Each structure stands twice: as structure tokens, then as C-alpha cells.
Amino acid sequence: MIIIRAITEMQAEADRLRSEGKRVGFVPTMGFLHEGHLSLIRLAKRHSDAVVVSVFVNPIQFGPKEDLARYPRDFQRDERLCLDEGVDILFHPSESEMYPDNFLTAVDVGKLTEGLCGASRPGHFRGVTTVVAKLFLAVKPHVAVFGQKDAQQAAVIRKMAGDLNFDLTIMVASIIREPDGLAMSSRNVYLSPEERQDALALNQSLRKAESMIRAGEKKSAVIVGAIEEMIRSKKNARIDYISIVDPDTLVPLQSVESKILIALAVFVGKTRLIDNTIIG
What we know:
With 280 residues, this protein is α/β, with parallel strands linked by helices.
């Protein structure tokens, strides 16, 4: 495995791989890797000849009151995990490499970014799409893999890639969960033992919603109400949003008639967690 820190060097290496007829797979991350990230790497390996993983904590997707300064980082551990998974290139640019002085350009995807996390985190998705576009141009992948846990992000990236004619395939991998059902997240380390128990309500409420739909419930308001009741019963939990939307357009749905995405964001203590399920 080689470590690359400069964009021009990454582009040159991508050109070399492509000239040799190799298929490049890419997994963008903010580091502090866990089993969820590793599952993305394994999926990328199955669909490519060479895998690139980026580790970059992207400052422009964090709001002024969010957790950029304390976001967990451990590059040596990330390096070791990538090496163990057979990653070919670890791309680890600095902030100044990605955003040099007088950097002015942004990529903005409308409509899809207005609801869900976009409503409570203004500017977040502009930061995400800008950095991912830059990473695509640096790595030049044939396939890029994202996680379903960030369902809105996956939909936004897929739309951006299509609208801007990026010559690649976007793959979305299933959510990886802890044995007790909590969706794996780098932010889980922030949770106290009591908060960790309360956080289980996110997945439990989604399972409750699935059982209601299987039993014939179609009204979104009723389903959302049941989720709210479960989460509000936990003293450390505060709901940001709970929504039932179309998985592709993210338009809110009043009733369950076909494929749906149930997405939620909840503060457990001071930690904001997201989770979702697709039913169809």
C-alpha cells in the first residue's frame, strides 16, 4: 500500500492504473475507520482491480457549532486497517492541499439537500458535494462506494455524479450494525454507557415501523408518531427529524404505497446520530 498526500500525485497514479487497463475502486472516508467502512472497502475490492481509500476530515461540511475540532482521528490506526484489508492506495491530503488560499468554488445540488439533514445543517451538503467532486477528480475512479447509513448523502452524490457526467458508477452498501443493532458510526465513541443504551431506540423504532407496515399500516403520520413515542421515552434522546420519503427524490410521502425511506436524526446527549431503513 502506498500513501499519497498530493492531488497531482494521486492523479498521476490514477492515470497510470487506467493506462494499464485496471479498474479503480474508491472509498471516501473521514477516517477513524470501523467495520462499516471496512465493508465498503471489501465491496470496492470485489468490483475493481485497485482500491483507493481517502482519509480527509472535510472542514467545509461542518457548521460553526458542530464537532469538527473533536471529530475522532487516528490516522495510524486507519493506515493499519487499510493495509490489513489490502487497500492499494491511501489518499491522505491536508486541508491546505484540498482548499488552497483563495479557494472559491462550490458544488451545490438543489432540492435533494433541502430536507432531512439539509434542513438542520445548512451548508452541510454543499461541503459534501464539493469535497466529493474534488476527490473524484483526484482519484479518477471507475466505481465509488458509499454507505446506506448516510442515505441522503448517497442520493445527493448519485444525483451530482449524474448531473455533472462523472464517468463512474456509484454503489451504495448496506448499513453495518453493532450486535445490539446500533448503526456503526465514528461518533458512537462520544456516547456514555447510558446514552449508548438510549441510542438503541433509533434502530428499535425503525424495526417497529417495519412491523407496523407489514401489519397493514399505510399512514405516514401514524408510523412517525409511533417512532417519536419510542424515542421520546429515552431521557437522553432529542429528535431532530423523523421523515418518510421517496428513496430517490427524498420527497415526503403521506402514505406508504411503494418503496419508501424512513430516515431519522436524533441527538443522544450531545451526539447527533442518524439511521434509516428502506422498505419496498
